[in-house]
Amino acid sequence: SRDGRIEAGKIVYDDSNEKEDFFNRRVNDGSDLSVRGAVEMAGSKWAKESSISSAESYMGKVLPAIMDVTLKQEETKSSPSSLVAQVESISVDDPNCVAKVTPERIYSMACHPSPHSLLVGAGDKTGYVGLWNVDRTPSSDKEDGGNDASDGVHLFKVHGGAVSHMEWNSSGSLLYTSSYDGSVRKFDVGTQTFSEVFATYDESSQYKDKLGYGLDQGYRYWIQYSCMDNRSSSDQCLFLSSSLGTVFHVDLREKGKITFNESLSEKK
């Protein structure tokens, strides 16, 4: 976590120290980030002790409970008339259902697959990932860390560039995020960590042992898009495309490997 001290129950960060410069301005050297660490990375403006405890409570208690119910949920068939009624009841102009989920412009979004809870994730142009518990109510605040000021939003800094894609796996236990900084991170509900599972690097000798060694082609290169390979039941295979028109497939099982890397277009 970042250097800081606690005064009167608040975290006070020392932002005067120069940050270590990581490849492509990534948030760190690829090490895992805990929920607390990812909130602290957001900076002193966003990382208050109340927001940290609220995020830890939601991610560590509420989200696993949502996932458990999702896994146990039995499929039910709805009649056409009931589906019509549900669609007609949808409203987009509820003034109480509005929240600022990320500090900057949103580049990607993903909804948790839960059929009964509405959890929306958003990634912005500077690498922030926000999770919004849309179903938040005053009574649920007690379960969500008791932070009335959160609006049900929990903010994390897990990338150094725009978050180009976000995607939950089918059970809602994993959230993948990819970024223009060339990295892919995975939030695991079970371990409560944001892990870097893949990253591109240039041909500098210190990166020879990295899976993405030699892929980065300089300032014009970034991960434009990514998605899970749903042909695999392991949730550990990804398709990625770059700003230079290349597409590659990454298999993260065992030691990991790039199964193909082809140029399909002259542009992104």
Question: Which keywords apply here?
Answer:
single chain; 268 residues; alpha+beta; 4-stranded antiparallel β-sheet; 15 strands; 31% strand; globular; disordered N terminus
The tally of helices reads 3
How many whole angstroms does the radius of gyration measure? Answer: 20 Å
Strands of the largest sheet, in order across it?
A: 3-11-10-9-8
Structural class determined from secondary elements: alpha+beta
SS strand fraction: 25-35%
SSE sequence, one letter per element: EEEHHHEEEEEEEEEEEE
Shape: globular
Main sheet characteristics: 5 strands, antiparallel
Helix content: 10-25%
Number of strands: 15
Beginning-to-end CA distance, first to last residue:
36 Å
Estimate the mean pLDDT confidence: 86
Low-confidence stretches: 1-17
How would you describe this protein?
- The chain is of the alpha+beta class and 268 residues long.
- It has three helices and 15 strands.
- It has helices at 35-40, 49-72, 80-88, and strands spanning 4-7, 10-13, 33-34, 106-111, 119-124, 128-133, 153-157, 163-168, 174-179, 183-188, 193-199, 223-228, 237-242, 246-251, 257-263.
- A five-stranded antiparallel β-sheet has the order 3-11-10-9-8.
- Strand 8 and strand 9 (174-179) form a beta hairpin.
- The relative contact order is 0.13.
- Residues 1-17 have low confidence and may be disordered.
